[in-house]
Amino acid sequence: MKNDDEIVIDPADGLPVMKVGPWSEDKHVALSRYVDAARKARAKWPYASFIDLFSGPGRVLNRESGVISDGGVLSAWRMSERGGVPFNEMFIADADAGSVEACSARLRDAGATVQAYVGSASKTVDQVLGKLPRGLHFAFLDPFNIEHLDFEIIRKLAARPNIDLLIHFSVMDVQRNIGGDFNLASSRLDAAAPGWRSKLRLREVPKREQVGAYLEYWESLVTDLTKMQVAQSKPLFVNMNKGPLYRLIHLARHPLATKLWNTAALPAAKQQSFPGM
């Protein structure tokens, strides 16, 4: 969790929830649609896991409506079980110990087998990979900001042969920091896309296209290193004022996984489009 003023208790179970914007609901819907779409592929494997290194407490409170609902990892588990092909194990982690405890309790109460870790994702990724059996794996990376999306996390997860990733890529963070950070000794954007400042001729790129240039560079790093494909569908989520917040980006090696995401992601009518993004 971010801080104490973000903590609210769910009256249904007495455990903490995390406050989120109303757009989070669509993100969890897209995730659940993909988990459901992949059930037949998952059924062909004797073992399948779900990995969330930024799990939070498992339940969220919509700041606008006041409605409490399942977060990403709990939504994914319930959908896998409802579809008749539940994940064999749910690997969760978060920097906040209270969030891990709450999320783990909720998942276990829902019938899941859970492996839980406390710490930053750049550290817990090694712990998870050390315990991960052979099988089919799906990792959902949903950090608070781009600074936490360390490229090494993706590199390490992608080393597994049968894995696909769904990544929350913060367009808003990049848009907010790219101009001011370009000439600094270090940038909040460095961890996600190492070398971006030496590779991007930012002064030659119109301001409205700078975020798109950064994302394009990040995608080139990912695809070159992992040999994974970036799915065509990259739904853009916006705030109440239609300002861009983040994209969901799917990475996979198997064309079936990419096809399933392109079909299961938010309907085209709900996806947003912005110049240079």
Weakly predicted, low-confidence segments: 268-277
Q: Mind telling me the C-alpha Rg?
A: 18 Å
The percent range for strand residues is 15-25%
* Average pLDDT, all residues: 92
Protein name: Three-Cys-motif partner protein TcmP
InterPro entries: Tcm_partner
Secondary structure topology:
Layout: E1 7-9, E2 16-20, H1 24-37, H2 39-43, E3 48-52, E4 59-62, E5 68-70, H3 72-82, E6 89-94, H4 97-109, E7 114-118, H5 121-131, E8 136-141, H6 151-158, E9 163-169, H7 171-181, H8 196-199, H9 210-226, E10 229-230, E11 236-238, E12 244-252, H10 255-264
Parallel strand pairs: 2-4, 3-6, 3-8, 6-7, 8-9
Antiparallel strand pairs: 1-2, 4-5, 9-12, 10-12, 11-12
Helix pairs in contact: 1-3, 1-10, 5-6, 7-9
Structure at a glance:
This is Three-Cys-motif partner protein TcmP. By secondary structure, the chain is α/β, with parallel strands linked by helices.
Could you please describe the fold and organization of this structure?
This protein is an alpha/beta fold and 277 residues long. It has a single domain (8-270), classed as Rossmann fold. It is built from ten helices and twelve strands. Strand 1 (7-9) and strand 2 (16-20) form a beta hairpin. Helix 1 (24-37) packs parallel to helix 3, helix 5 runs parallel beside helix 6 and helix 7 (171-181) crosses helix 9. It is globular. InterPro entries: Tcm_partner. This is Three-Cys-motif partner protein TcmP. It comes from Paraburkholderia metrosideri.
